[in-house]
Design goal:
Largest sheet: 5 strands, parallel
Number of helices: 8
Strand content: 5-15%
Helix content: 40-55%
Oligomer: single chain
Order of helices and strands: EHHHHHEHEEEHEHE
Structural class: alpha/beta
Radius of gyration: 18 Å
Length: about 230
């Protein structure tokens, strides 16, 4: 019998559209990173050295898009416009967002019920997101809470992304996470707003629960989504 949130040995949470508004990523984080790309990389005549902090991240991009800074910026614009979850793009975004969070320009609007759920969970809580591990850590370290910054990272047991686990629509990714945390799949409960992720996690033997938040895309009627983590 699959574990519920109350009996699970591990709880895995998606981020965008699950614990924070989907609009935060699309309306705040993505534009912030793109502004940086256009203002910092766009005007350059040559790309930064691979030994530099920024250059290390740009080095991961495909060679065919690195002929000029302008070509690389165009490639990044295209990836973001099509919402392509390329690991090298996610890594670069995490690097850019780090400056935003640490400067106080960016804070994450995590839902209060999610904060309470993570803070009070009896089982270890992990994050699995298409955003890089760095981006996840930054988000949960800089939560906008009553006008100040709240750090929830001490309450989180670990982080998974498309690099250390795999694509979120592939059942193999969920099997990999179960192996990495050393638990049987049916002892893990996963919350996400994405039906394709629910199907993939279910195929891997997890208990997958749908989440509906304001601004999310409609869900199939058979998923019976939760709208809050209160009393889960």
């Amino acid at each position: 019998m699959a574990a519920t949130a109350r009996t699970a040995k591990a709880i895995i949470l998606d981020v965008e559209g699950t614990v924070c508004p989907i609009s935060f990523v699309k309306d705040t984080l993505f534009p912030y990173a793109l502004d940086y790309v256009h203002s910092t990389i766009g005007p350059l005549k040559t790309l930064p050295s691979p030994e530099s902090d920024l250059g290390k991240y740009l080095e991961e991009f495909p060679e065919e898009h690195k002929s000029t800074p302008k070509a690389l910026v165009a490639h990044i614009d295209d990836l973001v416009a099509r919402d392509v979850k390329a690991p090298y793009l996610k890594a670069l975004q995490g690097y850019i967002w780090k400056e935003g969070y640490e400067s106080g320009k960016v804070r994450a609007p995590v839902y209060q019920d999610a904060i309470d759920f993570i803070s009070g969970a009896a089982a270890p809580v992990y994050i699995y997101s298409s955003g890089s591990v760095l981006a996840q850590q930054l988000l949960f370290r800089h939560i906008d809470h009553a006008g100040s910054s709240l750090d929830l990272t001490p309450r989180l047991a670990g982080y998974f992304d498309t690099k250390n686990a795999g694509p979120k629509t592939d059942p193999a990714s969920y099997r990999s996470i179960a192996e990495q945390i050393g638990l049987a799949p049916d002892t893990i409960t996963f919350f996400t707003d994405n039906p394709a992720e629910i199907r993939a996690a279910g195929e891997a033997g997890w208990n997958a629960r749908a989440v509906m938040r304001p601004g999310n895309a409609p869900l199939p009627g058979d998923l019976s989504p939760i709208t809050s983590f209160e009393n889960v």
